[in-house]
Design a protein that fits this description.
Elements (H helix, E strand, L loop, with lengths): L2 E2 L10 H5 L8 E7 L3 H15 L2 E7 L1 H9 L6 E3 L4 H8 L3 E12 L1 E5 L11 H4 L5 E4 L5 H12 L3 H4 L3 E4 L2 H9 L5 E5 H4 E2 L2 E2 L3 E4 L8 E8 L6 H9 L3 H9 L5
Parallel strand pairs: 2-3, 2-4, 7-8, 7-9
Antiparallel strand pairs: 1-5, 4-13, 5-13, 6-9, 6-12, 10-11
Helix pairs in contact: 2-11
């Protein structure tokens, strides 16, 4: 189930008015999307436009960088963050409406290699492999990078890995380092390497959730999105069956 912290701001809208195609004036909303959520959000945005007539203009990147842009007046209407702390901070600072905040997905971290058979199912390759470089997102900007560092600390591997890290600005760049072969291994989002529950290529170890803090990903309507019909509709749509099916197909929980 989705975890709702506050009464959603779109309660004033009826579901029919929000979701009926052509039933209301079509609008657009600019959405800042955490890089790990790129593939599912692209699909959701297409379905959203088909079903409602509204459009979501998507930008992808690191949550930390999006916060800086939002604080400096970037005209995003919604933030789909890679964590829950940033939306909470945004609401506390008056940059968004805290009543709209909810958890749209809980992410999973995975150790991945483009090479089939290279990563074993228990992640022993971290200790036993002959790899030279590992890609990790900047833990100061990317929650998946922070989760990766927490995992290494839990496994007492922080010292072993130091000096071998290829750091990505966000989880999208981190995946590219591993996919290009610049790093033999990469800590990436499960959503980047799977679809419909299947690994698309390479080999992977899904990191046990007990090894790091939950990657709870929250959405919030930002000040420029308040009163925007498309923003209201999209926040509602993310809770619906179609969006949830897409989100689950990429390995996220709720």
């Amino acid at each position: 189930m989705f975890h709702t912290r506050k009464t959603p701001f779109f309660a004033a809208f009826t579901l029919a008015a929000i979701l009926a195609p052509g039933g209301a004036h079509a609008d657009e909303v600019a959405v800042a999307v955490a890089a790990n959520f790129t593939a599912p959000m692209q699909k959701i945005a297409q379905l959203f436009e088909q079903d409602t007539g509204h459009k979501a203009q998507l930008s992808f990147g690191a949550t930390g960088k999006f916060y800086a842009q939002i604080a400096n007046g970037a005209p995003f209407g919604i933030l789909l963050a890679a964590d829950d702390r940033t939306p909470e901070k945004i609401g506390r600072e008056g940059l968004g409406d805290p009543a709209t905040r909810f958890t749209y997905a809980i992410g999973r971290l995975v150790l991945w290699s483009k090479q089939p058979g290279y990563v074993d199912a228990e992640g022993r390759v971290l200790q036993q492999g002959d790899w030279r470089h590992i890609a990790i997102a900047n833990p100061k900007l990317a929650p998946y990078g922070q989760a990766a560092m927490e995992t290494l600390a839990q496994l007492n591997l922080t010292d072993k890995v130091q000096g071998r890290v290829v750091q990505g600005e966000n989880i999208g760049q981190t995946y590219q380092f591993a996919a290009s072969g610049n790093a033999a291994l990469g800590f990436v989002a499960l959503s980047q390497v799977t679809e419909d529950g299947r690994l698309r290529e390479g080999s992977a170890w899904v990191v046990p959730a007990s090894l790091h803090a939950p990657i709870r990903q929250d959405a919030i309507v930002l000040k420029p999105g308040q009163g925007n019909a498309a923003a209201a509709a999209l926040m509602q749509y993310l809770r619906g069956d179609k969006a949830r099916a897409v989100i689950q197909s990429y390995g996220y929980a709720f």
